[in-house]
Amino acid sequence: MASSDLIDLRSDTVTRPTAAMREAMARAEVGDDVFGEDPTVQRLEETVACLLGKEAALFVPSGTMANQIAILVHTRPGDEIIVSEGAHCAWYESGAAAALSGVQPVSVGSGGLFSADDVVRAVKPTFDWYPRTSMVALENTHNRGGGRVWPMAQLREVAERARQLGLRVHLDGARMWNAAVAAGVEAAEIAAPFDTVACCFSKGLGAPAGSAICSSRDAIKAARRFRKRLGGGMRQAGILAAGALHALERHRARLQQDHDNARSIASLLATVPGVMVDLQRVETNMVMVDSPGIPADTIAARAREQGVLVAVFGPERIRIVTHLDVADTAVEGGQRLARVLASLTGARA
Ligand code: TLP
């Protein structure tokens, strides 16, 4: 099967820039951003800082770098950071928190969310034999939680309690645009309780690369230095920033369509006997599918034969993500997957 015929539901990171986005990128005015001379990067940083209600923003190559810069800014080696169960910054960033910042993550809660009391219980007393607990990181939407959205009241309560305890609060908002659409709030409302916010342009928004870290002017000054140290200082990055600006302006409102597609697929898969989909957890553009007794690798391989790509997220769990490039084909992908699952569960019975 030609790769262009595949319905790729592995991640919303696989999107390719649209013709209009490529045009905006080709037209971008650029300069050397390490000298602070790229006008398009500056425009993007001002735009995203304003959208999130923060003083300043820094354009970085990836969500991983945005998270890790936040950890570098808020911690000292030997510290402990409180994260959610399955947090991206602890699971999928190659051990960077330990390797680069020298901190140890401790996870609390379940399914990606946690409570203010969980934070209180996890903070270590200030005796010299304990690590110093210095920050809390929330993830909204939560990836391993299946694209779950933090209820606003809970998010505010956790951030407020953490702050009272003297901790810094970071949001991994790689998909906060999805969270805002799902919760029916402005992105700035989600960002408000946090010291630093990481957001991505390269997920559901469909830009080819790039993320931002948003915070106070002082924190962004420190972040800029860490970006350079990590090798993330880019030169004529305005080409990428133009794609991100285009995505912010044109692709935010359409995220609802991805959420609707995910819900349709989830409802369909939930009807396949022997397969488990928690419909209440399908809040944005992801669907987690559990298949007791059937290896996820087998499902992924069979689905590929039928022209559908899915991600393996556990021994018996696959993840499906809807996005811009499958806006019209995602549900067809879900139907093919339902047939694959039905044949595998049937074969087992
Ligand atoms: N997530 C990727 C994989 O790394 C798992 C995906 O396909 O979902 N925070 C969150 C919540 C993320 O989901 C991701 C990417 C990142 C940060 C990192 O972003 P990048 O890939 O730009 O470093």
Helix-strand blueprint:
Elements: E1 7-8, H1 19-27, H2 39-51, E2 56-60, H3 63-74, E3 80-84, H4 88-91, H5 96-101, E4 104-108, H6 116-122, E5 133-139, H7 152-164, E6 168-173, H8 176-183, H9 187-191, E7 196-200, E8 211-215, H10 217-229, H11 238-250, H12 255-269, E9 286-290, H13 296-305, E10 308-309, E11 311-314, E12 317-321, H14 330-348
Parallel strand pairs: 1-10, 3-4, 3-5, 5-6, 6-7
Antiparallel strand pairs: 2-8, 7-8, 9-12, 11-12
Helix pairs in contact: 1-11, 2-11, 3-10, 6-7, 12-14
Bound molecules: ligand TLP.
Task: Kindly describe this structure.
The protein is 42% helix and 16% strand. With 349 residues, the chain is of the alpha/beta class. The strands form 3 sheets. A 7-stranded mixed β-sheet has the order 2-8-7-6-5-3-4, with helices on both faces. Helix 1 crosses helix 11 (238-250). The structure holds ligand TLP. Ligand TLP binds next to helix 3.
